[in-house]
User: Fold N5-carboxyaminoimidazole ribonucleotide synthase from Nocardioides humilatus.
Amino acid sequence: MPESAPRIAVIGGGQLARMMAQPAIALGVPLRLLAEAEGVSAAQVIPDQLVGDYRDLATLRQVTDGCSVVTFDHEHVPTEHLHALEDAGVACRPGPEALVHAQDKIVMREAMTRLGAPQPRWAVVSSEGDVEEFGLPCVLKVSRGGYDGKGVWVVRTTEDIAEPLAASEAAGVRLLAEELVDFRRELSALVARAPSGQAAAYPVVASTQLDGICHEVIAPAPDLDPHRAAQAQQLALRVAGELGVTGVLAVELFETSEGEILVNELAMRPHNTGHWTQDGAVTSQFENHLRAVLDLPLGSPAPRATWTVMVNILGSADPEVGHLYDGYPHALARDPQLRVHLYGKDLRPGRKVGHVNAYGDDLEDVLERARHAAAWFRGDLGNDSD
Amino acid sequence: MPESAPRIAVIGGGQLARMMAQPAIALGVPLRLLAEAEGVSAAQVIPDQLVGDYRDLATLRQVTDGCSVVTFDHEHVPTEHLHALEDAGVACRPGPEALVHAQDKIVMREAMTRLGAPQPRWAVVSSEGDVEEFGLPCVLKVSRGGYDGKGVWVVRTTEDIAEPLAASEAAGVRLLAEELVDFRRELSALVARAPSGQAAAYPVVASTQLDGICHEVIAPAPDLDPHRAAQAQQLALRVAGELGVTGVLAVELFETSEGEILVNELAMRPHNTGHWTQDGAVTSQFENHLRAVLDLPLGSPAPRATWTVMVNILGSADPEVGHLYDGYPHALARDPQLRVHLYGKDLRPGRKVGHVNAYGDDLEDVLERARHAAAWFRGDLGNDSD
Assistant:
């Protein structure tokens, strides 16, 4: 690329960085990757790369040298390093003051309280007595370092409390207690926000989790009250603005049995609940993340189909399941409209190794196609078989 | 990628190879690139690469080592090298017997005659007398090595004949004379064909050339008689089958004032007249090229919008025009639905450096949006300004 296109440093070599590479190619914007190991998902597809530890400031300085901005595949870069990079003139997007709300669940809860955002009842706890006072059953979460269901416990009895307490102590992180919400389903409100303040809100989607891992997303969320959808979008835009988020922000929400929405989690990067946008929206979350990070005008978040369904492909526990590639002859022939996204990862039980998107006018048909394909790839057709 | 996904060698580091990288990322299929120089368009985005000369067999052997198939960004690899690679067990897709029809215009004309395909009157010529006997005015083309209008002359007088004759002699290639067709417009019928024989035909498009370079494509071709469109698709599928093409075949056609279609050129690779498919079709030509090359089931070639328009961005002759990136703030803000594809190339007058796609229901609107954006990027709003 000619010299005046800004170079973006991306910290972390997972599938989110991998999927940023596609719009970066189209936009003609060079990426420089800090990968945690050779050959990881994004390192397979981004030539300009360095292998190193994101917890090491010297490494971060090296990978951002000559880059005007840095963004992230994950939220684990230490806050003090981000401040050091900003002091050196590298724009961190999102910046450390925003990112801390995705890094630390207690900081996030405090911010939601400050903003008056609807959320479950919560408290910081540090003893069995604290938890009992908060009330059982409840959910305990380590404040930092949890992901995909790890570091989260549903505690129903006094005996359940010991493990989370020990884990938080061992990890040296605080423990958060949250009300166990009787939710009807999970929703996600995804927005992109540029440093200029310009923002775009994607349609609110419904997501299904299995064992704490995002499994299936329906865009838009079926039968969602339009006022509730607008409320969720406004909430996400307000959170993005108030916290100064740049790039993609995903606000994961509970929809309660009464139809209320409550903030569950925040993520400040392209998010699993936005993968449907690759094939289902005018501008994908990955492209809008890059545009936001570059402070370029954002692309339209409008849907391109009536319904788009994303289903994750998880590694199977069945040792008989061969290579994901072996799933192509049937999956592609069965559904010529299917969109497949594989991450270049080795199969391990329960590991996210790819996803499929399907779209169309008939939700039942779209769901069936996406579910069948994902089950086919993971070699587990279960009750979805045909 | 786990080890059983086949690796594809791609010969040539231009924008076509660059745009194959995006679906390769999604499919989880690794590419290995032979680039003609460091840092060329595709070399910026494909990590596994070798810099070398595609006319050197040892280099070709090196880049295809460990690859089950090889495909191409251009049609210039010598036929004898392709045979040598096939003898060594590397599947060339397209293979040498097919590719020669895209390499040698006389071989192509002979094949079209054999197939009974509609085409302009033609003859091989080697002297002024031959050309006069063929009849003036006519078009003279070097049989091999021409591209983007180079190696093509419209000759109207006896004096015009000397230059093409000298050029063909100097290059050591034969000269082809073709009837100067009074055409209404140019059409393109694009198909993908797998080694299994499975094939998919994209909607027939109308293309506009400027100085021999593809400038604008409208998909589908407006006001095209449906029977004529089907005839063009059937012709392209038949050519692909009869010549044994694997991958994408573009059949460039003249539509005459009488509404007949005549074969103008063949290209056996993703083609400029198919760039609209990146944003306007269910499966892009680049993805279907890779699927065909891998003998995987092809994706749907159906359009996703009523109209899609592609306009190329050409380098400006105006030295005041800055970097392409400078075009983003206005172009993206003006049209949040615009899709931009830049090639990472330095600006040179008349050089293809990118393209834009726009889509929608109103052709006039879509045309205006795409034309404005392309003109804006090249700093030349001319009569398209607003």
